[in-house]
Target: Uracil-xanthine permease
Amino acid sequence: MSDVHSTEYNFKLKDALLGAQMLFVAFGALVLVPILTGIDSNVALFTAGIGTLLFQVITKGKVPVFLASSFAFLPPLFAAQQGEFTYPQIMCGLVAAGGLYVIISLCIRFFGAGFLHKLLPPIVTGPVIMLIGLILCPVAVNMAMGHNGQVWLEPQIPSMIVAGVALLTTILVSLLGKGWLKLVPILCGIAAGYVCSLILDASGLTASMYNEFVGSAVDGKINGMGLAPWMDGTLISLAPVSQAKLFAIPNFSLPTWSWEAILYVVPIAIAPAIEHFGDILAIGSISGKDYVKDPGIQNTMLGDGLATSLASMLGGPPNTTYSEVSGAVALTRAFNPAIMTWAAITAVLLAFVGKLGGLLNTIPMPVMGGIMLLLFGAITVIGLSTLVRAQLDLLLPRNMIIVAIILVFGLGGMVLNVGITDLKGIGLGAIAGVVLNLILPCKDCNTENDPAEL
Model:
């Protein structure tokens, strides 16, 4: 067996290119979170790299996985973007979310993996994952239409055209792509939407539709929303590229203490915790090794948690194991964990290329909206599949009550004041689900856990 196909850690220079290819597979999803939430993309690259390296240290270089930006934590990042919290406050909550992983890892160490199964069975994690997708759906629709729910940021018709192109391309690549191409549908969708935007701008169609759109305004508003002062007849401006330095230190930032943000964010970490468990099982089945036993799920969970906290301490999005990269491992049968070391090193080096961050900032919002239309819906479907695969009878009163309360509390706007702050949304739904699962009597119900991927 060659060094690449061996599951033993073997760091060699000749594997650098393969490591860079692994980063390419993760790149589209990795930068998607910072682009959507206003975080510096170069910071996300840096924290993904050092997070992966830290994970490898904790797990003694035994698991071929790559850690990068998690979609599960988009709701609190959007809350910061909309002014409900400051970014440093949300980063404090995200640091604490990583701390929850650490606590879970300690509990697994002392009580065994069955502890996680009992605390977070599919009847809880399935609806919580669904809740994340459903709460984010309006954000995707707004972005695809060219507004944020309050102000028009781009003309409506050009926005919907490029969003449609990005969405259709992502779907087609997911269904028809082969080999490496099938692993990068998000990257292909972004590229197609970007090219479409360039064509609309160059042909003058964007300017024509912009003038018609602005001309339909009544008292400066269209459909009750005002127009952003920076909106013009183009979708893409290359000013961020020209203004960015070729090499620059990423825009790191520190968190500030906030109990409110901690209580808002930490319950959301329930879903990524189960995601991590599922990803470790998946990569184990791909490589033919039982990573749940060696290095142990308690150590992989600890590595994920510390990587998430470290990323948030530097102002980056929290980390999670990437299923796309696991797919690339399956395709190439490159099981050597050192390849992920090269992917992490490449991410860290690219983080200091300022022009790359500038280029990513030129991607039009509707392009990302088109991708999100599929992604947020897919998150909801993954939550639903968690319930289906566990073969739960949702007509049983206990199961029906837990699912109903999680969804209604999360989507209906229920607010619970706990003195320090208000619990609401995903956090309230998740906590309600965990508590109900622990206190409601369980008769003739299936509690077998089936970890989901998010």
